[in-house]
Amino acid sequence: MKVNKIFLAGLMVTMSSFVNAQDFKEADYTPAQTTFKVFAPSDAKNVKVRIYAEGHKGKAMKTVKMKLAGENTWEATVKGDMMNRFYTFDMGRGECAGLFAKAVGVNGKRAAIIDMSTTDPEEWASDVRPVIKSPADLVIYEMHHRDFSIDPSSGLQHKGKFLALTEQKAIDHLKALGINAIHILPSYDYASVDETRLSEPQYNWGYDPVNYNVPEGSYSTDPYTPATRIKEFKQMVQALHKAGIRVILDVVYNHTWDIDGSNFQRTYPDYFYRKTVDGQYSNGSGCGNETASEQEMMRKYMIESVKYWINEYHIDGFRFDLMGVHDIETMNQIRKAVDEIDPTIYIYGEGWSAGSCAYPTEKLGLKANIQQMPGIGAFSDEIRDALRGPFNDDHKAAFLACKPDNEESIKFGIAGAIEHPQLDYSKVNYSTKPWATEPTQMISYVSCHDDMCLVDRLKSSIPGISMDELIRLNLLAQTAVFTSQGVPFMLSGEEMLRDKKGVHNSYNSPDSVNRLDWNNMKRYPQVLEYYQKLIQLRKNHPAFRLGSADLVRKHLEFLDAPKNVVAFRLKNYAGRDDWRDIIVVLNANKTPQSVNIPEGKYTIVAMGGVINEQGMGNMNGNKATALPQSALIIHN
Q1: Residue 12 pLDDT > 80, yes or no?
Q2: How far is residue 147's CA from residue 27's CA, in Å, rounded to a whole number?
Q3: Residue closest to 478 by CA, chosen among 469, 490, 487
Q4: SS3 for 416-469, per residue?
Q5: Of the listed 321, 385, 407, 499, which one is catalytic?
Q6: Which residues contact 526 (CB under 8 A, 6 or more apart)?
Q7: Phi, psi dihedrals of residue 132, rounded to the nearest 5°
Q8: Closest Cα partner for 67 from 78, 53, 80?
Q9: Helical segments of 150-294, H only
Q10: pLDDT for residue 423 is more than 80
């Protein structure tokens, strides 16, 4: 990848007086007065704060000129009780809600002063984060709020809202499935849905940030009242926590929805964005801009934002969109700050960018640099694409369609992207060496919101595939994911055999494309049952989630196998388990395939698309035979 040199001439400014002294309080309220502070260039002209009675209409009640109160820090004190008033800052480039707004009016144009204690649900102070001893114990379910609940078949009352996840039917489904962490797609205030027109069909994934520290209004029952979205978000977290489910927030600090209209640009022009050597805005995000995480204020902003979501909203983890745009030092500082609160909070991200970044590649949070970021994970596109086919060609198949030479890449994922003596890294797609120090740094998956969902990908890459074959291969793919030593991750609705009508990038497609059809659980009950039992199998048997590279190297042994078969043995691991030897055979062939195994008497627990931990008969001798297009799991 060609990388342009960063262009920061004239922008290396000191923010310490603003950052340390203000602790991100742009509006310091008392009943008698409110002091407003904003980070803007010291040589700015006519810096003002405006006070409004409403969140989106009407003229300002008051406009107050701000004074320079320190390097790059502007201040104004407004007398009187400003509770429930709205405010904006204006540095001459258009009004904005400021960088650190924690409550906003409709569409996030104006920040609001509210009593945050009134947004806490009952018993919020006693809310407890579900216990996770290791990231390997996580089972992550990636969800878009609208997808999950919008269809009439969901039977949920609060369709497309935070509150849908407080309803008993939603909770019961998630608990029955067995997942213990929900990764919610961007849930901060974003630009592409007009909150004043929610009666009209609108859809977006939300990767277009506006106010990073405020929940999205379209997912609330009332986007006009600032406290509502905050309280309902907290109610959602509380309900999931009570169900034993952690909440992971998808954060998109790598770019803003635009440049000129962003809060960053309107407060301090060009400070928060990288430029190339010729003065153009760098576009490592593929969205027209990229933020400069290495800048002191941007780095501090990201750290404090993450801490705020943890402390105010009790968030349990973070998925960093295009983490490869951020610098390694910032990611490590975020990890350190989070560890001081709770080291079990999981952090992972996309270990790539969407284009060249105006920052040295060796200093970016790319997958290849994960070993420099302990305690931070990344997605494995190696196992993903080895199973289903390459991301850049929806019609090209791989292991699931019996295409050759994908076995080593799947083994790479099974091992958790770590150094393993049996792997031939010259045969692994995308990576010629291990990139994870520990298996918990690798996210194992076959589908997510990006690209086609698994059903659509199978239909696209295997023309004429029957429903029976599609189901067999779907279950086979997820068996590879959930028996890997990485952290397993699934797209919501895969347990319902969801499709998206073949749409590759459904970021703004209508509900008819993105919605989950809950009736599919009645049409294909065997799929849901397999997912449930597969997840339970992983949770019941710690050999599938060793959590340590040394333990993986000690206990994971790959077995010789025919083409388009991956077989491995988890040997002599007795940790809280009476399954002393577990063998997994993944057979993508349309014919039965046999693998040589150590002589013994084995109990069959998975075969032909069925899982029964109590056993489905015995298999004796030194050969294990897997049925076509399915997984075999046995133990002795």
Answers
A1: no
A2: 36
A3: 490
A4: CCCCCCCCCHHHCCCCCCCCCCCHHHEEECCCCCCCCCHHHHHHHHCCCCCHHH
A5: 321
A6: 471, 609, 610
A7: -135, 120
A8: 78
A9: 168-177, 226-242, 263-267
A10: yes
From the candidates 189, 232, 316, 350, give the one annotated as an active-site residue. Answer: 350
Pair 467, 503: CB distance under 8 Å: no
* Beta bridge partner(s), residue 635: 582, 603
State what percent of residues in the chain have pLDDT above 90: 94
Cβ atoms 395, 364 nearer than 8 A: no
Cβ neighbors of 460 (< 8 A, separation 6 or more) are 394, 395, 452, 502
Contacts of 411 (CB under 8 A, 6+ apart): 420, 422, 423, 558, 566, 568
What 8-state DSSP symbol labels residue 520? Answer: H
When computed from its CA atoms, the radius of gyration of the chain, rounded to whole angstroms, is: 26
Residue type, 623: K
DSSP per position, 386-405 = HHH--TT-TT---GGGT-SS
Nearest-angstrom CA–CA distance, 413 and 428: 10
Contacts of 574 by beta carbon, 8 Å cutoff, 6+ apart? 580
Handedness of CA 197, 191, 215, 442 (dihedral sign): positive
For the record, the structure tokens of 46 come out as 């006519």
Query: Which run of H or of E encompasses 557?
Result: strand 556-559
CA distance 582 to 332: 37
Distance, CA of 449 to CA of 146 (rounded, Å): 13
Structure token pair of residue 593: 């395939």
What b-and-e string marks burial along 65-100, b requiring 16 or more CB atoms within 10 Å of the CB?
Answer: ebeebbebbbbbebeeebeebbbbbbbeeebbbbbb
**pTM given for the model:** 0.95
103: nearest Cα among 234, 226, 262: 226
Alpha-carbon distance 6 to 280, whole Å? Answer: 10
List phi, psi (to 5°) of 253: -80, -5
Hey, what long-range contacts does 573-578 have (CB within 8 A, 24 or more apart)? Answer: 573/542, 573/543, 573/546, 575/542, 575/543, 576/542, 577/540, 577/541, 577/542, 577/543
Q: Is 321 a catalytic residue?
A: yes
The residues, any chain, with a CB within 8 Å of residue 39's CB and separated by 6 or more, are 15, 18, 72, 73, 99, 267, 268, 297
Over residues 189-244, the pLDDT tens digits come to 999 999 999 999 999 999 999 999 999 999 999 999 999 999 999 999 999 999 99
Count of other CB atoms within 10 angstroms of residue 485: 32
pLDDT of amino acid 576: 61
CA distance 249 to 347: 10
Token pair recorded at residue 72: 């790059």
| Cα–Cα distance list, 436 to 177, 254, 415, 480, 554 (Å) | 29, 23, 10, 19, 17
Residue with tokens 């540095």: 91
Residue 607 belongs to what H/E stretch? strand 593-607
Question: In the numeric block, which tokens belong to residue 509?
Answer: 């497609």
User: Strand 62-65 vs strand 48-52: parallel, antiparallel, or unpaired?
Assistant: antiparallel
Q: Percentage of the chain with pLDDT > 70?
A: 96
> Three-state SS across 42-109?
CCCCCCEEEEECCCCCCCCCEEEECEEEECCEEEEEEECCCCCCEEEEECCCCEECCCCCCCECHHHC
Residue position matching structure tokens 């294909």: 524
- Does residue 275 have a pLDDT over 70? yes
